[in-house]
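Components:
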Amino acid sequence: MNKVAKVEARAAAPASPPLTERQEARRRRILHASAQLASRGGFDAVQMREVAESSQVALGTLYRYFPSKIHLLVATMQDQLEHMHGTLRKKPPRGEAAAERVAETLMRAFRALQREPHLADAMVRALTFADRSVSPEVDQVSRQTTAIILDAMGLEHPTPEQLSAVRVIEHTWHSALITWLSGRASIAQVKIDIETVCRLIDLTAEPPADS
Amino acid sequence: MNKVAKVEARAAAPASPPLTERQEARRRRILHASAQLASRGGFDAVQMREVAESSQVALGTLYRYFPSKIHLLVATMQDQLEHMHGTLRKKPPRGEAAAERVAETLMRAFRALQREPHLADAMVRALTFADRSVSPEVDQVSRQTTAIILDAMGLEHPTPEQLSAVRVIEHTWHSALITWLSGRASIAQVKIDIETVCRLIDLTAEPPADS
DNA sequence: ATCAAGTCTGAAACTTGTTCTAGATTAGCG
DNA sequence: CGCTAATCTAGAACAAGTTTCAGACTTGAT
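Structure:
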C-alpha cells in the first residue's frame, strides 16, 4: 500500500509511445474484464488477479497497463463515459430551459447507471477514493462530464459564473450518486437533488441588469 | 474482504449495552490514536495494527469496537464534527443573508480542516468510500452536518425546498473537499464552489408568490 | 468469595492489492 | 536473418485489512 507512485503512469490519450495492435487488444481485454467483473459484484468483485486471468494477461502486465486498481477502474469509467456521451449526443434533451435540459440529461445518465448498479458502484467509488496519483485520469473524467453538461446547456461561450454552476452540478452529481449507491438516498431523492442543483443554472442564465 | 456484514455493529449513541468505564476509556484511546495517526499521514497512515498498538489494545479488540477501518475513521469524523459544531456554535456567523452565513460557516469549517489536511483526508476519504455496512454511521455524520448548516441558516422550520437546498450544499461540500484533498482544486476554487451553491438558499428563501 | 458469561490479549492465519524476479517472447533494426 | 531492448509470463514474496483461536482477565449475580 505504499503509494510512493513512481512517475511512470501514462494517461489514456497524451503522448505515450503508441501501442502496437496486440497491446491495444490487451488493453481492451483488460478494460472489458474489469467492466464485466464490476457489473457482477461492484468494487470488491474487481480483483486484480481475476482481471488478469479473465483478460489473459499476467498480473505484472496488468500492473504495467494500469498501475493500480483505482487507475484501472477510473480508466473503465473513462471508457464508459465516452460511450455514454456518444449515446446522449444522439438524442439531445428536448427541454426549453437550460436547467431542464441538464437535469434531463443527468437523469438519463442516472437511469443508465441504474441498469448496472454494481458497475456504477465500482466506478464511482474508485473515482472518489482516488488520491493524487490518479489526478490526471480523474481530471479527464471530470472534463468529460463537464463537456456533457455544457452540451446539454447548449452553450458556446459559458461565463465564469456558469462554469461555477457546472462545477457545483458535478459535485452534486457525484455525491448524490454516492449516497444512492450506499443506500442512503432513494432514486427519487437523487432526482430531487439533481433538479434542485440545476436551478443554479437559471440564476446565471440571464444577465439582464449587467454592464 | 468478504463484506457479508454480520448485523452486529453498533452505532455510537443508540441503545447498545452501556460501556463500562474502562471500555469507554479504551474507545477514547482508540479514537485518539486514530486521529493522531491520521494527522500524520492521512488515510494510509491509519494502520489497524498501529492504531491497536498506540491505543494499547489488542487487534481483535480494536475490531470489536470498530468493525472496519472505515468504521473507525467515520467514528473519528463523528467525534471531530461534534467538537467542531461546539466551536462553531460559540461564534455564530455575522452575515445578513442566510446564504452568507452558511457560506461563512462552511468556510470556517474548511479552514479548520486545512490546519490538519491529513486528518481531513483520512476522514473524508473514509466517508465517501463507505459502503452500505457503514450507512448508519455515515448517516449520523450527515445529520450532524445538516444540523450545522441549519444552525447557520437560523431556521426553525425549514421548508422541503430549503431542505433540498441543504442536501445539495452538503453534496457540494463533500465533493469539493475531495477535489481539494486530491489536489485537483485550489482552496480558492473550493471557496467559489461553496459560495456558488449557497446561492441556492436565496432561491428558496422568500416565497412571496405563494399560496 | 465464587462461578458463568462476556471481554480482552497475543499470535497466527487468511485475503487481496502490490512488488519483484528470472526466464521466455516480441518488436524494431541493421 | 540475427541481435538487442523492451515487453510479457508465471510465480513467489510482501503489505495491510480482516478473521480466528486458545487462554487470561473482568464483570455481575449469587
